[in-house]
Amino acid sequence: MFSGTTVSSGAGKGIVVATGGDTELGHINQMMAGIEKHRTPLLVQMDKLGKAIFILILVMMAALFVFSLLFRDMPVSELMLSLISLAVASVPEGLPAIISIILSLGVQAMARQKAIIRKLPTVETLGAMTVICSDKTGTLTMNEMTVKAVITADSVYRVEGDSYEPVGKIHAIDDPTPVTIAPGSLFERYLRTIDLCNDSQLIKEESGLWKITGGPTEGALKVLAAKVTLPPLTSELRSKIPFDSQYKYMSTLYRLGEEEVVLVTGAPDVLFRLCQYQQSDSGLQPLDLPYWEGKIEEYAREGLRMVAAARKPAAAGQTELTHQDLQQGVILLGSPG
After folding, report:
1. What residue ranges are annotated as transmembrane (predicted)?
2. Measured between alpha carbons, how far is 58 from 64 in angstroms, rounded to an integer?
C-alpha cells in the first residue's frame, strides 16, 4: 500500500518499508521538482523580438561607424556618443508596458466570465491552447454521487435530491405520489438490503452538512435508504463477504427480526448470473433477464452507474457466509442508478 492511501473499507496490518523521499509520493515529488518550466509563447516571441532588435542595432551602429568615420571624418569621441545615443533610443522601452496593458484587458474580460487569472501570461497561454485536461471530480462535478432511479420487477422509480442530505421523494416514474413503505413489501426489503449490505456511513457534521465515509457508490445507496423511514426491525450482523473487484459484489449475513437472510449488492451482470428469481409485489417470479438487461442499458445511456441488490433466506442456524452460499436461491430485488 502506498503512503498517503485512504482506506475506504476493510482492515489489515502492514509494515512500513520506506519513508520520506523513498516512498512513491517522494519519487513523484522528485520528478515534479525536476520538470523544466516552459516559457509561454508570448515570452518566447518577446525574446526573439529582443534579440532581433539587438542584432539590428549592432548592424546599424557598425554601418554608421564606418560611414561616419570614412566619409564624414567625425571625431571618434563624438561618433561614439552619437552611436550610444542611437542605441539607447532604439530600445522599445514602452513595449513591456503596452503588453501588460493588453494582458490586463484580457484579465478583465475573463473576470467578467467569472474566471480568476493570477498571472498575466496565463491570458495569452489560454489563447494558444487546443486541449484542456482537467480533474473531473470536485472540479467539474460536486464529488457527490446520488441515486436518481430505482428499477424493480414491477416499475421504475425516480429519486429526488442532489446531495448527501437524506431529503427527497421517491415516486413511480409515471406518478408523483411518494411511495408508501409497508412492512415486508418489495421496496422495504430493497431499501433494507442496500442499507445493511453497505460499509459506508452517513454523518451529519456540527455545521449541519451531511457527508459520507466509505466508497461513493455505497454512500449514495446509504443516502437513498435514509430518505425513507423504514419500519423498526432489529438487525444483527453474523458474517460478511467484503466487496472485491475480482468478484464484484458484497454480501452480508444478517439476523433481521426472527429470520436469517443473506443480502447481496454488486455489479448487475454478476448478480444476474447469481439470481434465479426476481421479487415483485405479487411474489416470486422466474428471473426475466431480457427485461433487466434492457432497463440497465436504457439508464446506463443516461450516464447512471447501475448497481443491483438481491437477497435470499439463510439456512437455519447459519453463522458463516461463503461464496458457495450465493450459487442458488438468490432473489433479485432491484437495481439503483
Report:
1. 52-71, 83-111
2. 10
Which residues are 310's β-sheet partners? 264, 332
Q: In whole angstroms, how far apart are CA 20 and each of 1, 34, 35, 175, 300?
A: 15, 17, 20, 59, 43
CATH class held by domain 149-336:
alpha beta
**Which residue out of 22, 47, 73, 135 is catalytically annotated?**
135
Show me where the domains of the chain are located.
41-127, 149-336
Give CA–CA dist 296/301, Å, rounded: 9
Residue owning grid cell 435470499? 312
pLDDT tens digits, 41-96: 777 888 888 888 888 888 888 888 888 877 777 787 787 888 888 778 877 878 88
189 and 279 Cβ atoms separated by less than 8 Å: yes
| Cα-to-chain-centroid distance, residue 91 | 51
135 is annotated as an active-site residue: yes
* Residue appearing with cell numbers 493588453: 102
Cα 143 from Cα 137, distance rounded (Å):
5
